[in-house]
Each structure stands twice: as structure tokens, then as C-alpha cells.
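A quick aside before the break. I want you to see a complete sequence-to-structure record at least once, exactly as it would be stored in a machine-readable document. Don't worry about memorizing anything.
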Amino acid sequence: MSESPMPERRLTRCEMEVMDVVWRKGRATVQEVVDALDRSLAYTTVMTTLKILDEKRHVVRRTKHGRAYVYQPVVSRDEIGRTMIEELADCLFRGSTKSLVLKLIESETMSPAERDELRLAILKLEGKQ
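That is the input. The structure line, written in C-alpha cells, reads:
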């Protein structure tokens, strides 16, 4: 018997938007996700996305409650974030997390307050070693 392949944990932008709602709520129906999204998406689009997140990505689990399915996350936002950051570093920086972080620091989008937070986080990490 062959092992099933690892689930694909790289999420599309739409899948991340849907997952954001599920993570925030802890559990949600399709309609609750539709209602909570920042942009307008068709009910069927959200339903299909949740089905993919369950059956292909394995990041949510659905259970039947009455006539509706309720979706709950089975992986954390941190797990998905780690996976996507590793893939981004692999794809753009030949696996160098340092290069990815340096590029983020050099970008114009990081505020001075965010740089201060980053400095504190590095100091904390250094203190643990």
C-alpha cells in the first residue's frame, strides 16, 4: 500500500482569506465565512474553496450540523505561515531565510516601529541562546 502524498500547504490568496475567517471564528459555516469576508465572494466560490481546504489541503475539517457543514481549522496560522515563508525563501532566495529577512527590512514598507519590534525580537532570541 502506498503512502498518501503530503497535503499541499501553500494556500492561494483566496484560500488565505477564507482561512483567516475560520481561524478568527474557530469554526464557521459557508454563510458565516461569506458574511465575514472583507470582499464580496459568491457563496459557491466560498463553498468550493472550503471543500478544497478540507479535501486537498487538509487544513480544515468539516462536520455536518443540521443541513450545513461547519468548518474548523486543523492547522494553525503559524504552521501555514512557516510553510509559506520557507517556500518563499526557497523560491526567491535559494533557501536563505536571512536574505528574505534582509529584503523585508530593506523594503520601504517596514515602519520604524516595526523595525524596533524586530530589534527586540532578535535581542530576545539572542538571550535564549
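Two observations worth writing down. The first strand starts at residue 60 and ends at 65. Helices lie at 13-25, 30-36, 43-55, 77-93, 97-106, 112-128. We'll return to this after the break.
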